[in-house]
Amino acid sequence: MFTTSKRCFFIGIWLCSIATLFAQDFVETAKLYPNARHASQRFGHAVGISGNYAITGAHREQFDANEENAIEDAGAAYIFEKENEAWVFKQKLVQEHRWFVDNFGIAVSIEGDYAVVGIFGEDMDDPNEANVNTSYGAAMIYKRDANGIGRNTN
């Protein structure tokens, strides 16, 4: 049963009541933004958090890590670290070999020292990036080290 006035579902219990109960335990503590904002980059489309680290994808970002070299929908992911109760931008991740409509950052996750970033439109399907196929997709794994997060080559 569905009621449009409350947008609740009944499946033995009222789901809206459960959502309200859990929502009362959370308080907004921060709103994250990319280090450079661009129209339609879709920052925040995908997000992840682990301990003091957060990652967010911007699958339509055009610019590289230096905010140069625009490529339509190449994508990016952003790493933030919680320092003294504030979330601080740490690093912008982009593919080494960016291409248009790769949508790097369409999905993201972070856990411990590792981050993974989905690349919906990836066209290269071998380690040497020589075999081009249309939108096979891929996931890039990164590992944090003393300098931040870098591509995991293991």
UniProtKB/TrEMBL annotation:
Record InterPro entries: FG-GAP
Protein name: Uncharacterized protein
Signal peptide (residue range): 1-23
Keywords from the UniProt entry: Signal
Presence of the UniProt keyword Signal in the record: yes
